[in-house]
Amino acid sequence: MPNSDNNKCRIIVDAMGGDFAPYNAVIGAVQAASENSDVELYLVGKSQEILNVLSYKKLSFNKNNIIHANEIIDMADQPVAALKAKPDSSIVVGTKLVSEKKADAFVSAGNTGAVMAAATLIIGRIPGIGRPTIGQEMPNAAGISILFDVGASVDSKPKHLLEYAVMGTIFTKEIHGILNPKVGILSVGEEESKGNDVSLAAAALIKKTNLNFVGNVEGRDILKGTVQVIVCDGFVGNIILKFGESVLDFLKFKFKEYADQGFFKKLKIGIVKNSMKEILKDFDYEEFGGLPLLGVNGIAIIGHGSSTPKAFKNMVFRAYEMYRKNLVSKIENAVKQYSHLT
Amino acid sequence: MPNSDNNKCRIIVDAMGGDFAPYNAVIGAVQAASENSDVELYLVGKSQEILNVLSYKKLSFNKNNIIHANEIIDMADQPVAALKAKPDSSIVVGTKLVSEKKADAFVSAGNTGAVMAAATLIIGRIPGIGRPTIGQEMPNAAGISILFDVGASVDSKPKHLLEYAVMGTIFTKEIHGILNPKVGILSVGEEESKGNDVSLAAAALIKKTNLNFVGNVEGRDILKGTVQVIVCDGFVGNIILKFGESVLDFLKFKFKEYADQGFFKKLKIGIVKNSMKEILKDFDYEEFGGLPLLGVNGIAIIGHGSSTPKAFKNMVFRAYEMYRKNLVSKIENAVKQYSHLT
């Protein structure tokens, strides 16, 4: 069981989360712990399976830091129902330890909805936050933009978009080192009059803050990098996220189709693929360290289902960074400042 | 002035619309008329400027088919205000002739908002249609999907999404020859329970029709081609449309950045660009013939600001196809069928 005998950052990794569980999660987590001695790492899940991976890969890991959890919430489970039906699942056990302050962070590549629900319901929200948000980094021509929200909730109210702007600004500043990140609301035109009911009301609210708010941005601004924090309802953000991911799959499909047309085309495609890989290396999700779930009263990182060991390692590092920078208390203080607006 | 002495399809092209007006519009329109003798083509705009292009390019065109309009609504004009402020603009004059049944179709690459407003307010809506919709063809792995709406309106109600589904189905069937196109609602998950308030209510409505409705589709399905008709609010569709367009610009930017790194990389990028051009030829907007504005009581086609002569030619051909297939009356009959649902 996690303890606070030392001043390390206590990070729990869900060993049972992701398409290659427990293999990738265990290898990546142990690697992270070995590279950062400020991290006290815990693995939660079926202990025998965790031990098997450790022994198979000859990894040295303190057995006392394995937290047994007998159940698994899988990808097909209904998030909220699963939390009740599987109280001994790695997701429920892990988030409970964070809520009891026995750990500082929870990292999982499991059922996204379930991790989100557990973080919100078990760890709980930061006082003053109506809705947590998931951010997605979008590398672009100018560096990086981060889209909030990409699916933590839909039908956001204007005050929720204000919260996303506040949390997104803190995350972008602390984790990406951008001092005064520009904030924009995703809309259908740059003009102040363009938007839907919610985006227009949210813009009026955010204008009253001292955030570096530039007003509306459009779909094309995401890859232009016009602003660093892009705020939108999770319905829109999630559709864009999935559309964006599919562009790379689509290009791969077209490359194959083209290569199949003949020898010289195949030759050319070899060069194209190679160059594209280098050109698009910024889009390698493994490097990012998962998607942060901001607004919960503890640190929670959500990983891609297909997370590699390297992706897990970077998720642990990101959790550590968020802990070290006191992101939770910074968010709590910042939202207090704007409570009179909503 | 247009007349109906013959049974030709009377198409008015806005000579003053687009970044290269009147040059590209005039050349493309005259070319279309010369290739299709069933089209009676009219050019609306500043007659002297139109005549200059005709003479400069030595194009033969019946001078009686030039309709003088002394004003121009430009890209910076506020759409609705401009219609009142500039009653003698090519957009107002052209759409008025369609509303008076003196012409069958209006084609313009001018201020999109103004064309949309003129079509809706001057030509008017088809009885039973609450909101017109703009469709955007998305070539994909399976052929084509068409997204409705990409920006005719925001904050659509469920019944408007039903209308988009009905109109989209007719357009896809008649213009793309897909007999029973699959219809999906863009949402945040495939499961029936996933969505926002409007998408869930719209799905419940569309389910009651005899359209080939498959339920929710996700962002990634756009390029997968899971369905042929994708229905969404114009706020979402417009953001996706602009994000999608920017992907190609972004790739070009990255290619350049990469090529600038050295001679061999420049060499490789030459091959990449070349292959990409071939691979992405389906995305050439010039081929599509503009975006159809469905739901207005006449044919209206909206072109890209940077439309080439070829793009204008294909816009005229598309207008002709929509006329020949009686799209307006087919939509009117189809929406009647579902009036009891809303």
Relevant terms:
homodimer; 342 residues; alpha/beta; Isopropylmalate Dehydrogenase; 2 domains; 11-stranded mixed β-sheet; 11 strands; globular
CATH topology assignment of the largest domain in chain A: Isopropylmalate Dehydrogenase
Strand content of chain A: 15-25%
Distance between the termini of chain A: 41 Å
Name the structural class of chain A: alpha/beta
Walk across the major sheet of chain A and give the strand order: 3-2-1-4-11-10-5-6-9-7-8
CATH superfamily of the largest domain in chain A: Isopropylmalate Dehydrogenase
Count of spatially separate domains of chain A? 2
Overall radius of gyration of chain A: 21 Å
Shape of chain A: globular
Q: So what's the CATH class of the largest domain in chain A?
A: Alpha Beta
CATH architectural arrangement of the largest domain in chain A: 3-Layer(aba) Sandwich
What oligomeric state is this?
homodimer
Order of helices and strands of chain A: EHEHEHHEHEEHEHEHEHHHEEHH
Main interface: chain pair and counts: A-B, 53 and 53 residues
What does this structure look like?
The structure is a homodimer of 342-residue chains. Chain A has 13 helices and eleven strands. The first copy, chain A, is α/β, with parallel strands linked by helices and 342 residues long. The first copy, chain A, has two domains: 9-129 and 295-326, Isopropylmalate Dehydrogenase, CATH 3.40.718.10; 135-283, Isopropylmalate Dehydrogenase. Chain A has an eleven-stranded mixed beta sheet, sandwiched between helices. In chain A, helix 6 crosses helix 13 (327-337) and helix 9 packs antiparallel against helix 10. The model of chain A has no long low-confidence stretch (mean pLDDT 93). Chains A and B meet through helix 8, helix 9 and helix 10 of A and helix 8, helix 9 and helix 10 of B.
